[in-house]
Amino acid sequence: MTDIFFRYTNRFVKFTEQDKDLLVSALTLTQVPAKTELVSYNQQTDALYFLLTGCIRKYFVKDGEQITTYIMTENGFIGAFDSIVMGIPSEEIIECLEPCTLLVLKKADLDRLYQQVPLMNEFIRKVLEGVLIQFKQTLSLFILDNPEERYIKLLSQNPEILQRVPQHMLATYLGITATSLSRIRKRILEKA
Amino acid sequence: MTDIFFRYTNRFVKFTEQDKDLLVSALTLTQVPAKTELVSYNQQTDALYFLLTGCIRKYFVKDGEQITTYIMTENGFIGAFDSIVMGIPSEEIIECLEPCTLLVLKKADLDRLYQQVPLMNEFIRKVLEGVLIQFKQTLSLFILDNPEERYIKLLSQNPEILQRVPQHMLATYLGITATSLSRIRKRILEKA
DNA sequence: ACAAAACGTTTACAAAAGACAAGAAAGATC
DNA sequence: GATCTTTCTTGTCTTTTGTAAACGTTTTGT
Questions:
Q1: Which residues does strand C reach (CB under 7 angstroms)?
Q2: Using only C-alpha atoms, what is the Rg of chain A?
Q3: Residues of A with CB under 8 A from a CB of B
Q4: Residue A29: pLDDT above 80?
Q5: Which H helix or E strand runs over B53?
Q6: Helices then strands (H, E): number in chain A?
Q7: What count of other Cβ atoms lies within 10 Å of the Cβ of residue A71?
Q8: Beta-carbon separation of B81 and A144 below 8 A
């Protein structure tokens, strides 16, 4: 099961077998049902997750409404980074939208790995580089494109999540209301 | 002049004097006039910059219009990260809005430092963690808040750049037009 | 100091998005 | 399979934003 994880790490650094053993001993495999909250409101987390299968979102509650800020579906790390790094409670909730298979990495174990495995800093650095580029692209999308263009790009780049995530969550993720997304979809259909 | 830089690094890791010597030998101090383009359109860059004094923005050109996506004013790294990391030409232009004092770090030198200075990976990892958290906050701002709220937050969190950056650049940075920002400012003035 | 360019605001109109409410459709639960 | 909940769509109205153009002011360059 950690095969998938090491296929991922391999894109960044080549861990030795010994490194991998240390990593495996720090990772815990978990399966959780849909609607599980990995991080709850105001919770201070001490764990990072690697999503093997399933679908997860992050959301805020603003004026009683849930505003989705992130959706992910495949191999990748997820966690309340600000809470972990800065040691503060998380304002964001991390919720599984489907049954999920996860690897859990506690912050204490990660910190230990930074000491034991020299490649670990390089690995996480490269992961962060990738995440950063992705975030930058998403942010540019908001600055450059209007909601309709954003929806069309999401449609072309990630048609899969449109099937797996309720539309009202996608709407807030695009920075608009569910009503507005429904109308945008109608507009697009009428054009085509 | 590198004092300021090491005051910054010190927030993340404690480089030895030997480390610092290696770093200093890799860094080049430059002063450039306003309007200098550190990275031009479609240019493949091989350098990272640390801004000591001055003000810099990143922008895209879309439909003939300049859309500002990032503004920074003080100690921090800036560069076309995607271009450097992925080795592709940059679609974003990086421009100095004021005369700037910069430290230049070539990618080749950075890669060498990763070999020579073990702390370097940790340092950049921690820098990236910080940058990532900042990006996440900015992105949340776009998803959670409307343009007026975004302007008010910018006003409260970074009143300084309102003085240093033309309004039409701030407008696109907030994801709106200059006309709209002018209206928002008027609305706020009338309320108060 | 002068001319040119850049900047900020305003206006009128069109397009889009939000708020609110009512229904239809789809899914979950038992 | 009937019920209940969630999700999606639609309608009406209001607010906000975009577009385009005009105008005065400020800044810049020489």
A1: A 146-148, 175-177, 179-180, 183-184; B 146, 166-168, 178-179, 181-183, 185-186
A2: 18
A3: 60, 62, 67-69, 81-82, 85-86, 114, 118, 121-122, 124-125, 128-133, 135-140, 142-144, 172-173, 175
A4: yes
A5: strand B47-53
A6: 9, 8
A7: 19
A8: no
User: What single letter denotes the amino acid at residue B122?
Assistant: E
Residues in chain A: 192
Question: Where are any strands of DSSP class E within chain A?
Answer: 27-32, 37-39, 47-53, 56-62, 65-72, 76-78, 93-96, 100-106
Q: Quick one: tokens of A20?
A: 């991998």
Question: Which CA distances in Å does A106 have to A42, A75, A114, A115?
Answer: 18, 18, 12, 15
Nearest C-alpha neighbor of A122 from the set A2, A23, A14, A7: A14
For A155-179, the pLDDT digits (tens) are 999 999 998 999 999 999 999 999 9
How many residues in chain B? 192
**pLDDT higher than 90, residue A191:** no
The letter for the amino acid at B81 is: F
Q: Which residue of A60, A121, A140 is in closest CB contact with B125?
A: A121
pLDDT of residue B85: 93
- Amino acid letter for position B118: P
The neighbour count for residue A107, using CB atoms within 10 Å, is 16
pTM: 0.92
Give, in Å, how far the C1' of D17 lies from the CA of B38.
33
Q: Which residues touch strand D (CB under 7 A)?
A: A 146, 166-168, 178-179, 181-183, 185-186; B 35, 146-148, 175-177, 179-180, 183-184, 187
pLDDT digits 0-9 by tens, A72-113: 998 999 999 999 999 999 999 999 999 999 999 999 999 999
SS3 content of chain A, % helix, strand, coil (to 5): 50, 25, 25
Q: How far apart are the first and last CA of chain B?
A: 44
Give residue B192's pLDDT band: very low, low, confident or very high (50, 70, 90): low
Q: Which amino acid does the sequence have at B134?
A: Q
CA of A42 to C1' of C20 (A): 31
Strand C nucleotides, any atom under 7 Å from protein beta carbons: they are 6-12, 16-21
Residues B144-163 have a mean pLDDT of: 93
Listed as ranges, the nucleotides of chain D within 7 A of a protein C-beta are: 6-11, 16-21, 29
